[in-house]
């Protein structure tokens, strides 16, 4: 049985994320709230004394206003400048990364994306890595988000949009994470739209998942 955790701070404790060297943040899809939730996770971790190293190894749909990019938001949350190291591979086309790269005649390799992350870091530091799209979305010419997650070997945090249909999506990704021999640390259901009356995906997931579950409220900012 899983457990519903009432606050982000308690979720960090229950999942063990607070004590982990870092996390790989994945989603059930693109646009589900990986960055939105990630920003709050980073704020919470910093309040608890961790120094966060943010990474968005590749970002497509890169915006002229860099503060609004995923990498920019994660850097700001971590309190560090948005330098190249945080996100070296930046592409303007709003396509899956290998497609966006091919538009400017570049090839993206998993080993280059993995190399954007440090090999070693101090115990008080925390490596926060956000993929692109969902767990099985293409990330490089030679692999998916799942492949980078396996190379990095960090616990995985799964973000889903809390909407009708998300139980299927969460359970499919949870199954895939297990199949890749990765640890699913916890699930966050992100409320991006005002909730549908009578829907309770968190409670419905309880019987199927053995991890701490958190509902992340609409327009919330726990630590800002
Ligand atoms: N809880 C929320 N309340 C209000 N708005 C939200 C919430 N979560 C996400 N959003 C908005 O929804 C949009 C998509 O969220 P976000 O960029 O975090 O998704 P993502 O999973 O990181 O997407 P990508 O696959 O592009 O990285 C953003 O405009 C964000 O501000
Ligand atoms: Mg994002």
Structure, described:
A seven-stranded parallel beta sheet has the order 1-11-10-9-2-6-3, sandwiched between helices. The longest helix has 14 residues, at 34-47. It has a single domain, classed as 3-Layer(aba) Sandwich (Rossmann fold). The radius of gyration is 16 Å and the shape is globular. The chain has 224 residues and is α/β, with parallel strands linked by helices. Helix content is 32%, strand content 21%. Magnesium ion binds at residues 34-35, 70, 130. GO terms for molecular function: dethiobiotin synthase activity.
The fourth-level CATH homologous superfamily is: P-loop containing nucleotide triphosphate hydrolases
Determine the structural class based on helices, strands and strand pairing: alpha/beta
Tell me the count of domains: 1
Largest sheet: 7 strands, parallel
The first-to-last residue Cα distance is 32 Å
Helix-strand string = EHEHEEHEHHEEEHEHEHE
If you consult CATH, what is the topology? Rossmann fold
Shape: globular
Number of helices: 8
Mean pLDDT: 96
CATH architecture, please?
3-Layer(aba) Sandwich
How many β-strands, per DSSP?
Answer: 11
Q: Assess the beta-strand content as a share of residues.
A: 15-25%
């Amino acid at each position: 049985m899983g457990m519903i955790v009432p606050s982000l701070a308690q979720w960090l404790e229950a999942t063990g994320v607070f004590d982990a060297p870092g996390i790989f943040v994945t989603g059930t899809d693109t646009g589900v709230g990986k960055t939105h939730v990630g920003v709050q996770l980073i704020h919470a971790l910093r309040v608890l004394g961790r120094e966060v190293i943010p990474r968005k190894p590749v970002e497509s749909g890169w915006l002229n206003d860099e503060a609004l990019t995923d990498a920019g938001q994660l850097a700001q949350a971590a309190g560090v400048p948005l330098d190249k190291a945080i996100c070296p591979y930046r592409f303007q086309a709003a396509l899956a990364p290998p497609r966006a790269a091919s538009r400017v005649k570049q090839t993206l390799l998993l080993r280059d994306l993995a190399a954007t992350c440090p090999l070693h870091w101090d115990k008080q530091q925390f490596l926060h890595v956000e993929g692109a799209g969902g767990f099985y979305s293409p990330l490089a010419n030679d692999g998916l988000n799942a492949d980078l997650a396996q190379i990095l070997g960090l616990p995985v945090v799964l973000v889903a949009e809390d909407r009708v249909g998300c139980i299927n999506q969460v359970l499919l990704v949870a199954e895939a994470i297990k199949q890749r021999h990765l640890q699913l640390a916890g699930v966050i259901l992100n409320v991006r739209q005002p909730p549908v009356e009578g829907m309770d995906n968190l409670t419905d997931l309880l019987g199927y998942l053995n991890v701490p579950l958190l509902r992340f409220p609409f327009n919330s900012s726990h630590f800002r």
